[in-house]
Amino acid sequence: MKKQLLIFLIALSTNLNAQTKTTGNVVEYFGKEKIVTTAEGSVLHQFSEGYFLPADKKSGTLFNGQDPIAWQYAVGKFANPNKQKTDWQPIKVDSVGVFSGKNLRSAFLFTEYNSPKEEIVLLETTGGTRTYINGMPHEGDHYDFGYTLIPFKLRKGTNEFIYTKGRFGRVKSKIITLSKNIQFTKRDMTLPDVINGEKDEKWASVRVINATEKDLKNLVITAKLSSGETASYATDAIMPLFVRKVKFKIPAAKNDFSGELKVELTLTDKSGKVLDKTEFPIQQRSATVHHERTFLSKVDNSVQYYSIAPALGTGPKALVLSVHGASVEARNQSRAYKQKDWVTIVAATNRRPFGFNWEDWGRIDALEVLEEAKKVFQTIPDQTYLTGHSMGGHGTWFLGTTYPGKFAAIAPCASYPDISTYGFDKGDEMHDMFKAYEPIKRSANSGRVKSIVQNLKQAGVYILHGDADSTVPISQVREMRQILGTFHPNFCYYEYPGGEHWYGDHSVDWFPIFEFFKRQTIPANKNVKEIDFHTATPAVSATDYWVKLQQQILPFDFSNITAKIDKEVITIKTKNVSIMELDLASLEINKEITITIDDQTLKTPSDKKAILALKDGKWSVINEINTAQKYAERQGGFKFAFNTNVVFVYATGGSAQEREWYQNRARFDAETFYYRGNGSIDIITDKEFSLEKYKDRNVIIYGNASNNSAWKLLLKNSPIQIDNQQVKIDTKTLKGDDLAAYFVVPRTDSKIAMVGVVAGTSEKGMKATWANNYISGITGFPDVMIFKANLLLNGLPDMKVTGFFDNDWSAKTLEFYN
C-alpha cells in the first residue's frame, strides 16, 4: 500500500505527454505502470512547465473590470509565449507538482498541451481566480477548495490554458480522461442529516458531469438508505459540457438511530437506463443535538444548508442567527456554541465559507435561513437575535443596521463594520478621479454600515473584541463605540484582555452576550414612537418597523426618514424620498391621523396603510403603488437581476463564433455562481424560452437583438437596444464593433421580475463582456454600464455610459462620457 501511494505521488508530479497510454484507471508510462487516477477518470496530462506574466497589483474593491489577457483575446492580440517572444517568463512546478510563488498572486500563468486528437476531457484545477481554455473564460479555484472541474473539448494540436491571479500564489492543473461522459462526482455535496422521527424527505444536492455536447434532460436520481428506504426525484437539466449541482431527495428513516448511514445514489435517464451509481455516508441524528438541515433557495432553486445548536427542553424558544467568518463552515460555526435551555442557535452559510461577505446573496441566504428556522422551530418572534465573528462580525453590523426591527439585539465579535475600508486595499480611491465611477460607487452604498448605523437605535448592541487581535485591528470597533456613544442608549462594549482574533469558543459563545440578549425584545410597532431610518436603496433595505421606503428621488443615494408619533399626529422629515408607506393599522391609534411631512399637512384614516407620494414638491396620499415604475420590490442595480428565481438564456443565432461565445458566457456565469455561491442555475437556449413557461422569473439574456430570439419577447420596448453594429439609447446611438453592455430593465409582463442583459456588438464587443465581477460580494454595478473593449486594458476612461434609469425606467438620467 505504501509503495502504491509513493508511486501515485510521483506520478502526480510527472509531466505525462503524448507517449502516455491510458487503459482504464492505470496509466502506462515508458513501459511502467503508475497509478494516476482521480475519482472521475485517468490523468491524461499534468502541467509542469509554463510561463507567468506579472500584472498590475492594483485592483479596486467596488470596480475591478480590468484584465489585459481578456483584452488581448477580445481584440485579437494574444500571442502564445511558446511561439512568439513576449514578456512572459518561464516557470516550472515545485516538488509536489504545484506552480507556486508570491509572484503568482498578482500574475497570469500560461500552460499548453499538444493533443494528438480531438476529444472531450475534464480540466481539474486548483488556484487561480479564472481559467481561460483556448480563449474561453471559466471559473477557477482561487480558494483552493479542490472541486473545480471543467468539461471541454480538446483541439487536435495546441491547446492554451491561462490561469489568472491565484489568491494564495499557487496553481495546480491537470487534464483528465473521463471514465464516463455522464457521471456523478462526490466533490462538494450538500447534505442534510436524517432526523429521527421526522417523516418528510430532505433536500440534498450532488454534482453531475455532462461531458457531452448535448443537453441532459429528464434525469431521475434515486437515493436508497442502507436501512432500505428510497426516494426518487426528477432532477434539473444540465447544459452541454457542464458540471451542475442538481437536486435530489433523501428519504426519511423509519426507525430511530444515531450514527452513519450509507446512501446509494442512482442516476437514470427517461428510459430507466442507469447512467451512473455512487455511494456516500450520511448522518442520522436526533433533532435535540447539533445537526444540519437543508432548504431550497428562492434565488436559484438550489439546495442550501444551515446548522443548528437546538435549545434544550421543549416549548417555544428564542432564536439566535449566527453568521460565520471567512473560510468557516456553518456546521463548525454552530458547534462552537454549547446548547442552551432558552434559545436555539442557527448558523447560516453565506452560500459558501467565503461566499459574499454577508452582502448580496450572502445577505439573502441569512434572511432565508432566518425565516426557515422560525418556521421549523416555531421560535418566539420578538426574541430574535444576531451575532457573528470576523467576516460574520461585519455581517452582524451589516444585517443589523440593514434590517431594523428583525433583531432585538446584535453582538458583533472580532468585527469590522465596512469591508470597503478594511484591510490593505482601502477600496477604490484610484477610481475617484473618473466621473464614470460615481454611479458604480453609489450602487454599492448599501454596504456602508457607518452611514446607516442610526438604524440600530431600537436594538441592543454588544461589542466583543480581543485587544490583541492582529487580524482585525481593535481600532475598527473603537470607532464604532465612539459612533454609538453619540446616540445609542443601549450598548455594551468589552475588550477581551490578551485576546487574539480567535481565543477559543468563547470568542463567540460568550456568556455575557447571551445574558445581554435575554434582556432584549423586539418592540411592537405601536410601541415604537420614534424612527430614524437610513437606507441606500429599498431594494436591499426598505422597512423600519412601521415605515417603508418605496421609491427614491436619486437611486442608491442615501435616504433618510425621521418620524415621530405624538398621540394622533405623526411628524415626518424626509431626504431623498419620493414614495413612502406607513403601516398605520399596526399603530393601533384608532383615530383619524394627521401627518405633517416636510412641513405639509395631510389627513388619513388610521385603519390601513398610507402611501405618500412626492410630485412637483408636493406630498399627497395615493391609492396604490404603480408597479410599472421602480418600487421596493423591483429596483435597479444590475446585480439584482440575479436575485430571484433566475434563468440564463443564451443566443443561438448569429455566427458559429457568436453561438459558442454566448453559450460559454452563460456557462461561465453559472460556474462562477456555483463556485462562489453554491448555486445551481437553469440555463436554456433562446429557442426554449417562452413568457408563460418562465413566468415571473428573472431572466439573464446573453446576446443581442441580432442573435438572441428571446430579445424580442423581453426587450422590444427596452430604452436600450443592441445589435451587431450599434447601441441605441433612446435617441442617442453609439456605433462600433467593440461596445459591451450590462444593463437591467423590468419584465413588462410581470410586476416583480427583471431582465438582465450581457451583450456586445460584433466580436470585440461580445468578448469585452468577459468580466463577471457582478457575481461577487460588494462590487458596484448600477442599472447600466456600456463600455468599449479597451476598458479591459485601460479601465474607466473607456466607459461610455453608466448610471441609473429614472423611476419610470426611462434613460433620461443616464450619464454619457466622451
From TrEMBL:
GO terms for biological process: proteolysis. Keywords: Signal. GO terms for molecular function: serine-type peptidase activity. Gene3D superfamilies: alpha/beta hydrolase. Pfam families: Peptidase_S9 (PF00326). It comes from the Bacteria. Residues 1-18 form the signal peptide. Residues 357-517 form the Peptidase S9 prolyl oligopeptidase catalytic domain. This is Prolyl oligopeptidase family protein.
